[in-house]
Design goal:
Length: 262
């Protein structure tokens, strides 16, 4: 019973506000989903992202996919997800919190050892838009130090803001601190552990939204995601998609031959 109560408290703390549209003094990341396999438009957010070098998709037109996972706490599925990624030689980025690093150091170590990128999701999962720059800096640096302590990844350069909340100020601050904001172009309600609907639901949600250059947000607490991942990767490879890392995207974006993304 105690374990169940703790899981509920952690769930509410980390994922309770993900669907917020406007929050605090910031914006909640969002867009209109489409089913025409195109990058969704993000309206007024696009100019802000361009200005500060943030990403939510790869605009090169190439059939690339970037898998990202948010890790606030562990439900027992991350190892299964890592097994599939290893088998299929697919890179991913895991955005972790301080709670996750503290409770699951061996999984964080394994992520890095198997070639995945560990991203910064903050230490305590706060709303950056109501914080000072110094407080935001402490959140990011504390998480980075925690990751460095348990893994061979000593620096973190990609940031996913807690609850997807951001504004122009937090985008600028992250740049000043050496971070690149990474949002997403595909997501669905996968984080509620009490409302999992089976692997086909996760599979269908992603396949309906898939598009060239997708940055996909998934949560490792989802049994649906863990069970569908192998099928998703297999089918998307058949359709000609390649799985890339965020490093590939950012490096490509800097090449002189053309502009990719922002």
């Amino acid at each position: 019973m105690r374990k169940i109560i703790v899981s509920i408290i952690v769930f509410l703390a980390f994922f309770g506000s993900y669907m917020t549209i406007e929050a605090s003094s910031g914006f909640g990341w969002g867009y209109k989903k489409n089913s025409d396999h195109q990058i969704p438009e993000v309206g007024k957010y696009q100019e802000m992202l361009e200005k500060f070098g943030a990403y939510y998709a790869d605009f090169s037109g190439e059939k690339n996919i970037y898998l990202t996972f948010d890790n606030g706490y562990e439900q027992g599925y991350t190892a299964d997800i890592l097994n599939v990624l290893k088998k299929e030689d697919v890179p991913a980025t895991f955005f972790v919190t301080g709670h996750y690093v503290k409770s699951e150091p061996e999984l964080v170590k394994r992520m890095a050892e198997e070639g995945h990128i560990i991203g910064n999701h903050s230490y305590h999962h706060p709303d950056f838009s109501v914080m000072t720059m110094d407080a935001m800096k402490e959140e990011l640096e504390t998480l980075e130090a925690a990751v460095a302590k348990v893994s061979n990844q000593k620096e973190l350069k990609y940031l996913r803001p807690p609850r997807g909340i951001f504004n122009e100020q937090t985008l600028k601050w992250s740049n000043d601190l050496g971070y690149i904001h990474v949002f997403w172009s595909i997501a669905f309600a996968d984080w509620n552990v009490d409302k999992q609907k089976g692997w086909k639901y996760a599979y269908d949600q992603i396949m309906a939204q898939i598009h060239p250059g997708a940055i996909v947000l998934l949560h490792t607490v989802s049994s649906d995601n863990a069970e569908s991942l192998q099928k998703l990767i297999t089918e998307l490879k058949k359709q000609g998609y390649s799985f890339k890392s965020l490093d590939d995207l950012v490096l490509k974006d800097k090449l002189p031959e053309g502009i990719y993304g922002f």
